[in-house]
Amino acid sequence: MYYKINTYGCQMNVHESEKLAGMLEEMGYVSTVNDEEADVFVFNTCCIRDNAEDRLSGNLGAIKKICMADRTKIVAVVGCMTQQKGVAEKLRKSYPYVDIVLGTSNLVELKQAIEVAKRRKKYVSIKPATMDASLELPIARTSYPNAWVNIMYGCNNFCTYCIVPYVRGRERSRDMASIVADCEKLIKEGYKEITLLGQNVDSYGSDLEGVTFADLLERIASIEGKFRIRFMTSHPKDINQRTVDVIAKYKNICNNVHLPVQSGSTKVLEEMNRKYTREDYLKIINALREAMPDVGITTDIMVGFPTETEEDYLETLSLVKEVRFSNAFTFVYSPRNGTPAAKMEQIDDEIKKRRVVELIALQNSITKEISDEYEGKVKEILVEDVNPKYEGTVCGRTECGRLVTFAGSPDMIGRFVNVKITRSQSASLFGEVEE
Ligand code: SAH
Ligand code: SF4
Ligand code: F3S
């Protein structure tokens, strides 16, 4: 018996797919990448932008023939997209071979849903995204030497463009003791990197008594052993000096912060309900660089938000030049039904396209300049995988999250090695192991 999971969207979903896999493996299913072989298909969906939704329709369409020919195949569509109004109904009409639909708080029902589907009955269960029944699930981890650890679920921020608070519900922090216990266990098992996950990690603990994200970081950083800590995503309105100081103080907390700015225009930031100004953002960048001169800062930027004028957009470009992000994820605003920004007057698609192309070109040139600065330096790398593009090589990341490729063999995966950077190629670096 085989299963195949297709995952869309963010790291949160990648990790939740590990929980879905954990349940399937407990039931005796084995992972496959082959559509013909799969007995159970799971689509763990995302609805952050149009294109995530389009990819799901494409992939569901691709298995139609197989599933219609063999009605013992079970198809489940789960996660963020199913929480949107009308989606379950649309799935029922357009994809009659979908047997199971589970909301973001219903993933834990997968086992019983499969038992029902085996009797050729539909199983649809979507509750308001307020609970997280997924904490105690078995996890089939797929990202060694990294392990994902949820520290919180949901989001309270309601940025006016964003669907996440609607499909993931309100913010819930996990209890600190259970997070720390998970991390201790993972490190004992040999994981070398822990990545803490939350939509806004800086507000961790706001629904608990007397704990903050900085406390949690310190506590995890004090666990015995050689390992790295990463975390995402930080929010400019909530990151504070104490958190910055804790990141700087502990060697095992990576000097790498993903701090989405979204726009360089204070006016647009206000329309987005981001609750910080351009100046606030630049102050945080200064504080980070003062505490950690070598800190790697990455970001998310959006162009084409409804109220974005050419002037606003130029302010985004000027912020990008000023900050010099080591990397930026760039997005074209995509209206999401039910969010305030979707009801505003929209910008022409051509303008959006031109803006994003220019922005990407600017960031690429900065990324390349920063890459060039690595040449000749020696960096500690955690070996993550073989690099299938080049025979006889492995790759891993610097503390700042840069990918480096060098000669090596699969037995090196999970080891820390010092690598001298010899060459850079846009965002990628190449080097040699130093003895
Ligand atoms: N919680 C994180 C990000 C979650 S979504 C944060 O607050 O930063 C990841 C990124 O997707 C966002 O940072 C944003 O840049 C982008 N995004 C969110 N909604 C979008 C939309 N409607 N259209 C285009 N991009 C969007
Ligand atoms: Fe969306 Fe804003 Fe929450 Fe991030 S902080 S998930 S962008 S609403
Ligand atoms: Fe993530 Fe997409 Fe849901 S970005 S939280 S999987 S809408």
Keyword list:
Transcription Regulator spoIIAA; alpha/beta; 435 residues; 6-stranded parallel sheet; 5-stranded mixed beta barrel; binds FE3-S4 cluster; Rossmann fold; binds S-adenosyl-L-homocysteine; globular
Q: How would you describe this protein?
A:
34% of the residues lie in helices and 22% in strands. The protein has helices at residues 11-26, 50-62, 64-69, 87-94, 110-118, 164-168, 176-188, 213-221, 241-249, 266-271, 278-291, 310-323, 349-374, and strands at residues 2-7, 30-31, 40-45, 74-79, 100-102, 123-125, 146-150, 152-153, 172-173, 193-197, 228-232, 256-258, 296-303, 327-332, 378-386, 393-397, 403-407, 416-425, 428-433. A 6-stranded parallel β-sheet has the order 2-1-3-4-5-6, with helices on both faces. The chain has a 5-stranded mixed β-barrel with strand order 15-16-17-19-18. It has a 3-stranded parallel β-sheet with strand order 7-10-11, with helices on both faces. Helix 12 (310-323) runs parallel beside helix 13. It starts with a strand and ends with a strand. The model has no long low-confidence stretch (mean pLDDT 95). Iron/sulfur cluster binds next to helix 6.
List the helices and strands and how they pair.
Layout: E1 2-7, H1 11-26, E2 30-31, E3 40-45, H2 50-62, H3 64-69, E4 74-79, H4 87-94, E5 100-102, H5 110-118, E6 123-125, E7 146-150, E8 152-153, H6 164-168, E9 172-173, H7 176-188, E10 193-197, H8 213-221, E11 228-232, H9 241-249, E12 256-258, H10 266-271, H11 278-291, E13 296-303, H12 310-323, E14 327-332, H13 349-374, E15 378-386, E16 393-397, E17 403-407, E18 416-425, E19 428-433
Parallel strand pairs: 1-2, 1-3, 3-4, 4-5, 5-6, 7-10, 10-11, 12-13, 13-14, 17-19
Antiparallel strand pairs: 8-9, 15-16, 15-18, 16-17, 18-19
Helix pairs in contact: 8-9, 9-11, 12-13
The structure holds S-adenosyl-L-homocysteine (SAH), iron/sulfur cluster and FE3-S4 cluster (F3S).
